[in-house]
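PROTOCOL LOG
Step 1. Enter all chains and additional molecules of the complex.
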Amino acid sequence: MTSLTDLTVTQLGAALAKKETSAVEVADAHLKKLDEHRALNAFITETPEKARTMAAASDARRAKGDAGLLEGIPLAIKDLFCTEGVQTTAASHILEGFVPQYESTVTTNLWKSGAVMVGKTNLDEFAMGSSNMTSHFGGVENPWKRKGDNRKLVPGGSSGGSAAAVAAHMVPGSTGTDTGGSIRQPASFCGIVGLKPTYGRCSRWGVVAFASSLDQPGPFARTVEDSALLLQAMAGHDPKDSTSAPLAVPDFAAAARTPDIKGLKVGIPREYRVDGTSPEIEALWSRGAEMLKAAGAVPVEVSLPHTKYALPAYYIVAPAECSSNLARYDGVRFGLRVPGKDLAEMYQNTRGAGFGKEVRRRIMIGTYVLSAGYYDAYYKKAQQIRSLIARDFNQAFEKCDVLLTPTAPTAAFAAGEKMDDPVTMYLNDMFTIPASMAGLPGISVPAGLDKDGLPLGLQLIGRAFDEETMLRAAAALEKAAGFTARAAGY
Amino acid sequence: MALDKDTVARIARLARLKVPEEELGTLAGELSGIFAWIEQLNEIDTRDVEPLSSVSDVTLPLRTDKVTDGGIAAKVLANAPGGAVYIDPSDRNAGGFFTVPKVVE
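Step 2. Run joint prediction.
Step 3. Record the structure below.
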């Protein structure tokens, strides 16, 4: 028998609409999964009582004939979104115990559309990482394991808890944020769909800031259509975020339901063929292009000449913005305070004790590149490279409608691997960062398993504010790939 | 570019981060490695390239210059790590203060 936790957002919505089940039953079934799989450490804070209250209110609304887009759908929220009255930590010791007095715009939109919160998910500290290993609350375990190998694998990062929770069927959907790949890479590692919208599509208000010119909220789900539906509820202009685009929200779900890509030009960027990519991923990428071709699309080779410079430029821009954003954690208004003999010492003690190793490292990189005499050599240079990267994409989109690339250079790795040197870890985001630097939308679709039985994703990149074309192509790819595998035991 | 321990200590001070003396050496090595890797950006001539500071073409919107909230001092002070001091404890929204170590003798 199919259980409620097997269903997708769309299927749950249909079952609820037909009164085959209730929001309270749906919430309880998923809360039970949270209990069963607590060992994955996907959540920092579980909110079962809040979930039941919200579900009961949802059932009451539906009884009155007043059902929203996500009425009664249980969701997990990355612990980077401020939630009123519920601890929000950014997975950092410095924010441990912080209880926001306001609700982020994205979560407000979700609750307005009827969704139910089951808890706040684990992440890399301040969203800085690609493994979820930098969390103050411990790493998250990927529900997937290599065949015949019991070692724990990482779920990717930074939104590792949100991805693991969806892959383990603890929730049918969740929210993440993506600065350089933090939605797409964990989606690929966990065999689910992860969507980073165009910069400005979703409001950043109430989301703990990492790098403000790059950060963008987006959804995780198990199908392309579900991710589109979630995005539809999350997106929209917000006067409280000056970079939020004053554009109407299209019917994303309708786009995802029409995987008609006849004549669509799919760009294959040659610079994404790089050393260090697993041969299996190269092969999957070629198969993906073949699948889209068989569905009527026209693959075209394109060139994005500055691809290899996106990653080092990102490691100037993101730390620079992080060092400015994280200046607010000084032990005065919220979060941790470690006393000192004077104000300066209190700042230093608080920040030294409150931030983890990777966050301290990035603050220091950022402080250095912005310090007197170095600004032009580093920050300005990186912003100029960013112009060249954006120009590359503009030129490529004169020849194609959407780009197809791998999402990550490898499948999920074991906890402890790639930890010896920061640059090795940074390379994980080599395929996702270029689109981030240009503010473009990207989606990772699970497209196959490697020889160890681990999921691999392919990424589609769209034009700015053209998520609809990207979603149509993603739905076509999903249909052709027919990925139905589930992590054993989940 | 190689960073020495003194430079790392200076950056840490600028960033108001207490870094234990024994970690300075490791950090200097890691940061030097990252900056050496970043050096590859110098392969590109960017003399005539405008820096990109915002990815959105959208003009920043203006809003009417009027107060949109207020009277929420209790909320503002709710997470004060040193404890807050209220002007009128019976009406916390009347205003109050964050507390910090003494800065003036």
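Step 4. Note key features.
Chain B has a mean pLDDT of 91.
The two ends of chain B are 43 Å apart (CA to CA).
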